[in-house]
TrEMBL record:
One of its GO terms (molecular function) is ATP binding. It is a peripheral membrane protein. NCBIfam families: oligo_HPY. It is found in: Cell membrane. Residues 4-252 form the ABC transporter domain. This is Oligopeptide/dipeptide ABC transporter,ATP-binding protein, C-terminal domain. The keyword Transmembrane does not apply.
Length: 334
């Protein structure tokens, strides 16, 4: 049984003027000790998915199922979800500065989180908070316990959030752009400590990022989202060696392979156009206006299902409809 099983998830945001259809018909699984990467352009629904999984506003689940450790979460009261968060599910948010209280010291914030979820008080809570900072290799942790968020660097603030997230040894960790705005050396340190703690606690990790290099190095499987829909899914090796969906191909083409330094002298390929507005539902493929392999009067007219291929991969593209039965026509270069 998967640790996390999402089926046909629908997520909306409601504003006074309009409805935003942030996630449409999303399905995937995540196991213990597994790292799954969720990638896509800004506005593709990645963070909305994370908020929905955690039961946090303003994401509103309007359909589908979220089963965590065998238990259905959709429809559960807020009190149940609040107790679950922190104890069995935890999240590292994009911006560590805005996620920490500027009026409280680092130690006070860690101790507050510990006291809410664990039977520790006084010196025991302080000692455990200090241990958490040491576990994420925080320099001078005793001093950091007395300092405030503005006195720490971005990488140090992110270490605090990781320490807080792992305080209760959660089964599921969601990391939403955990290395944004950090230099590559600090990125590597943060990802390394997250991976070590994940292995120690046998947690499942959903890593949301724009950095395809990070995904290639850390994730077992990769999910590619666009306009709130899952466009392609497979092992990370499958996705990077042979991307199937034209959108995935475009994303990977816009990166510079380290083994090809001569490519740095060439203009980077881009995907023409802009992602569509999510204030409308799509009758066909949302990627149709930008797709170089589009089929007029077909891709824009029919709702495109998520095809499961014999290789175990999934792809939402009509080019692969004939491969459901195991035919092997090669369209990866389309």
């Amino acid at each position: 049984m998967p640790l996390l099983e999402v089926q046909n998830l629908q997520v909306q945001f409601q504003t006074p003027e309009q409805t935003v259809y942030a996630v449409s018909d999303l399905s995937f699984t995540l196991d213990r000790n597994e790292t799954v990467g969720l990638v896509g352009e800004s506005g593709s629904g990645k963070s909305a998915t994370a908020l929905a999984l955690m039961g946090l506003p303003p994401a509103k689940i309007t359909g589908g199922s979220i089963r965590f450790d065998g238990e259905e979460l959709v429809g559960k009261p807020a009190e149940f979800l609040q107790k679950l968060r922190g104890q069995k599910m935890a999240m590292i948010f994009q911006d560590p500065f805005s996620s920490l209280d500027p009026t409280m010291s680092i130690g006070a914030q860690l101790i507050e989180a510990i006291r809410i979820h664990l039977p520790l008080k006084g010196k025991a809570a302080y000692a455990y908070a200090l241990e958490l900072l040491k576990n994420v290799h925080m320099p001078t942790p005793e001093q950091k316990m007395r300092q405030f968020p503005h006195e720490l660097s971005g990488g140090q603030r992110q270490r605090v959030l990781i320490a807080m997230a792992f305080a209760c040894k959660p089964l599921l960790l969601i990391a939403d752009e955990p290395t944004t705005a950090l230099d590559v050396t600090v990125q590597a340190q943060i990802l390394d400590r997250t991976a070590v703690l994940q292995r120690q606690h046998s947690s499942g990790l959903l890593l949301i990022t724009h950095d395809l290099g990070v995904v290639a190095e850390t994730c077992h499987r990769t999910l590619v989202m666009y306009a709130g829909q899952l466009m392609e899914a497979g092992t990370t090796e499958q996705i990077f060696r042979n991307p199937l969906h034209p959108y995935t191909q475009g994303l990977l083409a816009a990166t510079i392979p380290l083994e090809k330094p001569e490519a740095r002298r060439q203009p980077l390929p881009t995907i023409p156009g802009q992602p569509p507005s999510l204030t409308q539902k799509f009758t066909g493929c949302p990627f149709f206006p930008r797709c170089r392999a589009r089929i007029p009067n077909l891709c824009d007219k029919e709702k495109v299902p998520l095809y499961s291929l014999p290789s175990g991969r999934q792809v939402r593209c009509l080019l692969y409809a004939d491969q459901r039965s195991g035919t092997s026509s090669d369209v990866s270069s389309v």
